[in-house]
Write a structure and sequence with these properties.
- The complex is a heterotrimer of chains A (167), B (352) and C (387).
- Chain A is α+β, with helices and mostly antiparallel strands.
- Chain A has one domain.
- Chain A has three helices and eight strands, in the order H-H-E-E-E-E-E-E-E-E-H.
- The longest helix of chain A has 10 residues.
- By secondary structure, chain B is α/β, with parallel strands linked by helices.
- Chain B has a domain of 133 residues: Peroxisomal Thiolase, Chain A, domain 1 (3-Layer(aba) Sandwich), CATH 3.40.47.
- Chain B contains twelve helices and twelve strands.
- In chain B, strand 5 and strand 6 form a beta hairpin.
- The longest helix of chain B has 16 residues.
- In chain C, 69% of the residues are buried.
- Chain C contains twelve helices and eleven strands.
- Helices cover 33% and strands 18% of the residues of chain C.
- Chain C has a nine-stranded mixed β-sheet with strand order 3-2-4-7-1-8-11-10-9.
- The chains are: A alpha+beta (167), B alpha/beta (352), C alpha/beta (387).
- Chains B and C meet through helix 2, helix 3, strand 3, helix 4 and strand 8 of B and strand 3, helix 2, strand 8 and helix 8 of C.
- Strand 4 of chain A pairs antiparallel with strand 5 of chain C.
Amino acid sequence: MSEAQSTEKKPVTYINTPVAVKYDYTAGKATSDFMRAVAQGKILGNRCPQCNRVYVPNFLVCVQCAVPMGEPFEVPDSGIVLTFCIVNIKFYDQVLEVPYVSAYVLLDGTDLPLMHLVQECNVNDVRMGMRVKAVWKEELSPSLESIRYFKPTGEPDAALETFKEYL
Amino acid sequence: MRDIAIIAFAQSANKRNEQIYNEAEILAPVAREALQKAGLKKEEIDFTCSGSSDYLAGQPFSFVIALNAIGAWPPIQESHVEADAAWALYECWIAMQADESINTSLVYGFGKQSMGSPRDVMNILNDPYVETPLWCDTISMAALQGRALIDAGLATERDFAAVAARNLKHAKSNPKAQCKGDFTVDELLRSPTLASPLRKHDCPPITDGACVVILAAGDTAKKLCKRPAWIRGIDHRIDVQAIGRRDLTRAPSAQIAAEKAGVGAGKVDIAELHALFTPQDIILRKELGLASDCVINPSGGVHQGNPMMGTGLVRFGEVADRIIRGEANRGVAHATQGPCLQQNMVAVLEGK
Amino acid sequence: MGRRCAVIGIGQTKYMDRNLAVSHRGLIRDAANKALADAKMTWQDIDCIVIGKAPDTIEGVMMPELYLADALGAQGKPLFRVHTAGSVGGSTAIVGTKMVASGVHDRVLVIGWQKQSESQATWALSPRIPFQPPLTAGAGGFFAPHVRAYIRQSNAPDHIGIKVAYKDRKHALKNPYAHLHQPDLTLEAIKNSPMLWDPIRFGETCPSSDGACAMVIVSEKYADRSASPPAWIHGTAWRSEPTIMAGRDQVNPLGGRECAKDVYRQAGVTNPRKDFDCAEIYVPFSWFEPMWLENLGFAERGEGWKLTDKGATSLDEGGDIPWNCSGGVLSSNPIGASGTIRFAEAAMQVRGTAGEHQVEGAKLALGHAYGGGSQFFAMWVVGSKKP
């Protein structure tokens, strides 16, 4: 208003137009099954009958073959760090303290990594191929945040050759 | 120009609120069905294009997730329009005209309107400087168009109700229809007003759904389909958006598109109009030059289901299906977007 | 690929972090007017407008081209909107080319634009959606692990990422439209910049810009009688693949390799490093230069960083295959326009109109864009001679 009332008629260079729209998202069949399992402390995956790959989380349709995936089953909550980055920047909506490690974790017996946090070790000690295990929250809910983070198990690292095809 | 035809069409059942499956999950079986109808494997599709809206989906890059449904591997030639999927069909048609190695195309559209309030969401496509702050919703703008028709003496509320009654009656034979039934004009006119002069039956339903169309060129089309629906003309045009600068009783861009598509070159058996509100049906019939013996919206049109961003593509599919089945020889498909018929696409499909 | 076509007009806005002088209308018209003037044409001469940009959440307007129809001179004409994530600027140019190549239109105006200052970009690009696994580190955090994988697999030294950023920012000094003009920038300063997403430093990331880039693409008939030099389009290609797929190579994606193979075949390119005089490649994080050198066949797998190291991609070092003479995405990044800029800058080189960052005698150039999680690719080859 002050600009409009100004006698100097300064140009209007910027206006704010607040817009708010409410959405009710649909999780979908596969994600619903996955989240219900997470609320019970289980991680679900499923296998494509055509390419034989195991997807985590479980999918309804194989993203590669476009055929319906098999029945979901529980997969281990341990695996390896495929690759990762160390986050030193606070960005919008981020609640974590920096620095922290964001990693692609490939669970044992599966073919698609989950993106999650690696903690309980110095960020500079995280390595590609390092073995990790999920640390669950006490109070479980239908959210991936039921897993607080993954922590190193202390087992020997996997050699690069063994997981190269997943990078 | 190469001869290009629609050889298969599939759509999900129109639903008011699909709570189990998300967009990609709704789309996946529809894509499988369309491919099966066309007798093609996914690897035999040369080009893929889709239409959707991030604001409707409530998230950026919504089309990226939908790609999961169609098995984009090995890597595919693909594109996406932030528009009704009818424009994706147009892009496929262009790609096939430009490149003779593209003999088949898969087009899909999807929308899950139930996630938000479409009446509010659509306000975000107005001019952000002077119109959006007024929060002029789609139904109110369509009501202004209806009012303009009445004031110009071009239509009455009875005419609007008659359009709704016709659509809902036609929808009775559409297994995918969300709304259908026998209603008299007098019955409809007793229902309450949403935004004068529009009543509920004058407005489109809120629908979740997906649709897929498969195109093929020349001999490939003939090989795969007994009676392909050949695209004999297709064109799209746009008008300015600000409704204060338009004669709302007209849709000049629809008229140009119809002329360029060659609608008037022969008898039109059927037409599927993307008229979201009943007054638009009356405007479009005139702009497209459709004769009184043309069957309008044999599927029930938008009033039986409105899977937004796929709604325009469904019009193409519904006309094509009737030609493929031999129920019509020459049909017109129409798609629109923007408030009050701002942008329009018209195509002529023929069995010969 | 259908009828022959050429670029005969190019226009760009000055790229900057917050352009308060113009509205959306002003931004796109600035670029379009310059392109039309370059082509010695007027708005009336245009048959069709193809416009592209990344998510609408960035400007907070759904399908803004609809309200911009009058500013685009589109009344009564076809107006077409493309959105293919980060590659959109390139895809838009390809759609524009096909509009002409198909024989449907003769004179098409192509525009890529984004006014990123109008929203919180991280929110606009990756808002928190319930049920979706939280992206724990923003866009840079998505790519940084793949960069780490590249470094580990190729044994590339740390200074490569720094060198690419330095080289492109120096190139940008020769481009008046570039967003970042940092004449005093040193390798040391980039090295000492904050490590945002280790292994990616702040100095190795692209800026966030407002800007638009327009091109006039015409059929052979119009290119032949054009008073402006044409950049002939020798080939266009695009490829897409899923974001998350078991076993997908995210360091050297198959989609990029196949896209390059396709466009090289159309243009008769057999040895990209030798056949091209220069290239404008989408490098938003500096490590993508060596990664794309390999993906696009300029170097063998694991060897890309050596070209960068030797100065092969540097205009200032007299490299044999200068990449991003304009300063690239690392110096200007209005997302939806970034691909269009790459395609346009490649065309400027073969037209001989690139000014101070001109590669002398450039005859054949590659324009490239990518987007999503390294999954959408768009490329074209332009040349000074008719294909």
